[in-house]
Each structure stands twice: as structure tokens, then as C-alpha cells.
Write a structure and sequence with these properties.
Layout (H helix, E strand, L loop, with lengths): L4 H7 L1 E4 L8 H21 L15 E2 L11 H4 L4 H11 L4 E10 L22 H11 L3 E7 L6 E3 L10 H9 L9 E2 L7 E4 L5 E3 L8 E9 L23 H29 L3 H11 L6 H19 L1 H4 L3 H7 L7 H8 L4 H17 L1 E6 L9 E3 L10 H7 L5
Antiparallel strand pairs: 1-7, 2-3, 3-9, 4-7, 4-9, 5-6, 5-8, 10-11
Length: 407
């Protein structure tokens, strides 16, 4: 299965037929339904069990890798198929691609109707949208998401091309009036069973109807390791215990994912230590390794500043002793994958994360506005974090110079 990477970057999405080969559809339906039954039993015993998101919500999700055994390993191994991982490698323009997350999205038990139009973008935890977009346009995408239908599905709407730009005035007017209604330039994504849509998740999109109609969507995300930018939202949303149930080939692929992530954490550690030491040459060296493209490197600095803040949060005494679900919530991670960020946090002392916060303080001050602002279509309410534009007149050289503003 082949795609045109340039067309994908231009449109922000591609709809593909028979992502699930027709001769595999029934077996995958059966295996996923077995996992649904297992998750339902877990929810019945303990609705707060962290392996699955809450059931009595608009969009129940199964983190299906937490439920697999050898008889249902085909669900995870499908995520490594040429039609999923292989196509993602084409879109991300590198063979070094990792599987970030695996969910099965299901219908709720009661009718909820439409959700809100949104981009998967949060100014509190990422960089301003225009910065992310410019970085992507210069260097290619770093993250793709998939919706793959086990049954016919037409819930998702998108605004083609909106991943490349800010909201138009017309979109803002319509969104401010009603974020649960179709946008005039929206497009309904109609998937037949087995079809999939791959998209850049900063695109404006809308879950139009959460009803009791049977819904089973394989929801995946893949991130680049070998591309020209440092992607946003990069921490894996899985832990490797389930890999023992997979084939030897699949186990080797997940081992490769883990090696790529560890190599990146080595570089991130060196990047942070260069900042701690006020080592400008080392900082530039590791910034170039993390973000090879010369354009957009300040976006990488912003993203890593948010990661540094999360490491500091995990080191705070009032957070460090909490149960895993609460610790995960404190840094916006999922409870069944907190060990991925813990492994990086454990490389630093609390004193070092405090000093990192001081080094990043001048940048964070510039990422805030004097008064609250709001732009519809973000996963955030009013905030003083910049929604759209990077801080003016503050580039990599200015950040290095700002270290002398901090302690």
C-alpha cells in the first residue's frame, strides 16, 4: 500500500481502503471483541482500574495491549503491518518510526451525541500552534494518527488543510457559536469496514455522534525518530510486558522501538545537562541531534522545556509518593505508561530539575501573556499560555543568552 507523502502533508489526511485485508477482518473483529469482554469484566470489578479509560463516558477506550494474550496477539501485531506501520513510515519519511499508542475506541452505553471540534493541541503542554505548523511544513510531520474501522463508521469529520494554518475568522465565528455543529467547510470521513484514515492530529476534527450504535475503531499513533524534527507528544503510551505474548518478529520490532526511545532519552539527558552546565556548544550539538532540521529548532526547545517541567513535577515530594494513576495525572501521562517518563526523571535529582526550571524560566515567561486568552478548537479553556504564536524575537541564541538571566 503506497501513499504520496507530499499530498498527505498538503491535505493533512489520507483515506485508505482495506487497511485491514478482507481475509483478516473477521479474525480481528473476534479478537478485539474478546478484549472488549475482558475490559468489561475489569470495569465491572473496578471502574477505576487504570488499564482502561472509564466506561461511562462519551468515548470508552481500551488500551488493548494491556489485555492481550497469545490468542489475541493478532490485535497488536496488526499495528506492525505494512498497511499501518509501513504506511506511517512513508508519511513520516523515515524507517525509524515507533508505535506511540494503541487504543480501541468503542460506543458508549448511553447516547451522548456530538462532542466538540478540536485540534489535538494544548498550549499548556506543547508549543504554540503556528510554531508547530511552521516546523512541520519545513521538516515534515513527526506524528500521525489512525482511525481504522472494524465496522462501517462515519463519526469523524475533518477540515482538510487546517493542520497547516490557524483558524480562519469564519471558523472562529462558527466555533464560538456552537462547537458541536458541523463547520461549513467540514468533511465527513466515511469508512467502510476495514478502511482507515491516517491524519495529522493538529487538523481540526470533530467526533460528530457518540451513540449506542456498535462502534469499534482501532485508534493508533506513530511517531518518527529519524525525521528532521522533534515530534510533540512523543512518550510511548505502553509498557513492554505484553510483548512476551507476541511472535518473535513482533518482539524484535518492539525491542527496536524501545532502543530508539532510549537513544532519544540519552540525547535529551545530554541536552538538559548542557543547559545545567551552561554549555552552549553541547546544547547546540544535542539540539541538532534531536532536531536535525535547522528551521524550527526553537519549537524543539519549547517542547523539551515542557518535558523538563514534567520531570520537575515528578520529583516534588508531594507527587513522588502518590500512587501511579495520580502521578501520571500530574504530568498528563496515562497510568499504565508512567514508567516511560519515570525512567527519564530518575536520571536527574530534584535539585537538578529545580535548576532546569530556573534555566527555562525566561523562556516560559515569554510563552505567557499578560491576560488570559482563548481560541476555540484547542483542548484547553482560557489560559495565559500562548495559543498560536511563538514568542517574538526569541530564538536559540536568545535562549542561550537568557541563561544569565536565571540563577
Amino acid at each position: 500500500m503506497q501513499i504520496d507523502p507530499e499530498r498527505f502533508l498538503h491535505d493533512g489526511y489520507v483515506i485508505l481502503e482495506n487497511v485491514i485485508p478482507p481475509d483478516r477482518l473477521d479474525e480481528l473483529r473476534a479478537s478485539f471483541e474478546t478484549l472488549v469482554d475482558r475490559q468489561q469484566a475489569i470495569w465491572a470489578r473496578d471502574p477505576e482500574d487504570p488499564r482502561g479509560m472509564a466506561y461511562k463516558v462519551k468515548q470508552p477506550r481500551l488500551a488493548f495491549q494491556t489485555l492481550v494474550d497469545p490468542s489475541t496477539a493478532n490485535t497488536v501485531e496488526f499495528c506492525l503491518h505494512a498497511n499501518t506501520l509501513g504506511v506511517s513510515r512513508q508519511a513520516l519519511r523515515t524507517p525509524d518510526v515507533g508505535l506511540k499508542q494503541m487504543f480501541l475506541m468503542c460506543n458508549p452505553a448511553t447516547h451522548y451525541g456530538p462532542d466538540l471540534w478540536h485540534r489535538d493541541s494544548q498550549p499548556t503542554s506543547q508549543a504554540p500552534l503556528a510554531g508547530l505548523q511552521a516546523d512541520m511544513l519545513a521538516n515534515g510531520p513527526g506524528l500521525v494518527q489512525w482511525n481504522i474501522a472494524l465496522y462501517d463508521d462515519d463519526v469523524l469529520w475533518i477540515v482538510p488543510g487546517s493542520h497547516c494554518r490557524l483558524n480562519t475568522a469564519q471558523e472562529n465565528r462558527e466555533l464560538m457559536e456552537d462547537r458541536t455543529a458541523p463547520l461549513s467547510n467540514g468533511m465527513q470521513v466515511k469508512l467502510k469496514a476495514g478502511d482507515g484514515v491516517m491524519y495529522i492530529n493538529s487538523i481540526l476534527h470533530w467526533p460528530s455522534n457518540y451513540s449506542t450504535k456498535l462502534r469499534r475503531i482501532i485508534h493508533l499513533a506513530y511517531r518518527s525518530f529519524g525525521g528532521r524534527l522533534y515530534p510533540y507528544g512523543v512518550r510511548f503510551s505502553w509498557e513492554p510486558g505484553f510483548v512476551a505474548h507476541l511472535s518473535a518478529e513482533a518482539q524484535a520490532t518492539f525491542q527496536r522501538f524501545a532502543e530508539l526511545a532510549e537513544r532519544e532519552d540519552d540525547r535529551i539527558e545530554s541536552f538538559f545537562r548542557a543547559i545545567l552546565d551552561k554549555n552552549a556548544d553541547g546544547f547546540r550539538e544535542y539540539l541538532a541531534l534531536l532536531h536535525p532540521g535547522e528551521t524550527g529548532r526553537m519549537v524543539c526547545v519549547v517542547l523539551l522545556s515542557k518535558l523538563a517541567a514534567n520531570l520537575g513535577t515528578l520529583k516534588r515530594p508531594e507527587v513522588a509518593g502518590l500512587p501511579e494513576p495520580q502521578r501520571a495525572a500530574a504530568v498528563g501521562e496515562l497510568p499504565f505508561s508512567i514508567s516511560n517518563i519515570d525512567a527519564l526523571a530518575n536520571r536527574f535529582t530534584a535539585a537538578e530539575t529545580d535548576r532546569l526550571a530556573q534555566r527555562f524560566a525566561p523562556l516560559h515567561a515569554r510563552l505567557h501573556t499578560e491576560t488570559e486568552q482563548f481560541v476555540p478548537g484547542f483542548q484547553s479553556g482560557p489560559t495565559r499560555h500562548r495559543f498560536e504564536h511563538m514568542p517574538p524575537d526569541f530564538e536559540v541564541d536568545d535562549f542561550i543568552a537568557s541563561w544569565n538571566e536565571a540563577a
